[in-house]
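A reminder from the course coordinator: this example appears on the midterm review sheet, so study it carefully.

Given structure:
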């Protein structure tokens, strides 16, 4: 499978490549939004078990991060 970046024969990129990259970015943004919502759902239902970092703590189950620096 390709990494999605296709060079032309002379190694330059043309408008089609820009369009390809743009549409791929749009796709990933939508996917990101979907994943963010899924993660939020998991975090809202999680019984957090916090692990302390330096200035914050994160849940070892769902990676919810809480600042300890108020
Ligand atoms: Zn959690």
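Designed residues:
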């Amino acid at each position: 499978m390709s990494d999605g970046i296709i060079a032309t024969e002379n190694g330059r990129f043309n408008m089609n490549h820009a369009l390809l990259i743009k549409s791929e970015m749009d796709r990933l943004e939508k996917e990101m939004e979907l994943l963010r919502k899924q993660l939020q759902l998991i975090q809202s239902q999680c019984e957090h078990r916090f692990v302390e970092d330096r200035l914050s703590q994160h849940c070892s189950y769902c990676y919810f991060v809480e600042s300890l620096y108020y």
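Helices lie at 15-45. Residues 43, 46, 48, 59, 61-62, 64 surround zinc ion (CB under 6 Å).
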